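Priority: medium. Attachment 1 of 2:
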């Protein structure tokens, strides 16, 4: 994938360094950390139709996301409707970003951005894109573990 042309939001500017990186097909996953106090982590997910940049609490986010994506293929329809069909990944003010597992198809997920003001945006991820995102997360986790 070519170098990202996205600009980091002004409020997130500062000196950051790459912690780990994973790529698969058209998708990249990167975790950055602030190089000055206070220590903060940021995730970047980039693909053919989406670029997401958000603060995360810890690098454990990679494992949480992988577990979440793996759960869809193992769930029954009854469990599919449960609370574990949503992984809340970031919040800024009244805006919440989450991954959601579809309640109709096990192989369909959504990036959902919603706010109390009524904002609602949903990006659908299926098929090859879903497999590539999951592999990019796995690759980033391996890169993180190799760095230790």
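Attachment 2 of 2:
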């Amino acid at each position: 994938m070519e170098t990202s042309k996205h600009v980091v939001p002004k409020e997130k500017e500062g000196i950051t360094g790459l912690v780990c990186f994973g790529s698969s097909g058209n998708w990249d996953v990167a975790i950055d950390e602030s190089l000055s106090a206070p220590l903060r982590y940021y995730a970047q997910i980039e693909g053919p139709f989406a670029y997401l940049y958000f603060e995360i609490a810890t690098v454990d986010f990679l494992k949480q996301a992988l577990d979440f994506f793996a759960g869809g293929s193992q769930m029954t329809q009854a469990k599919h409707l449960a609370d574990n069909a949503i992984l809340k990944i970031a919040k800024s003010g009244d805006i919440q970003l989450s991954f959601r597992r579809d309640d109709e198809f096990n192989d369909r997920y959504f990036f959902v951005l919603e706010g109390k003001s009524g904002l609602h945006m949903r990006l659908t991820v299926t098929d090859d894109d879903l497999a590539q995102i999951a592999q990019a997360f796995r690759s980033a986790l391996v890169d993180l573990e190799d760095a230790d």
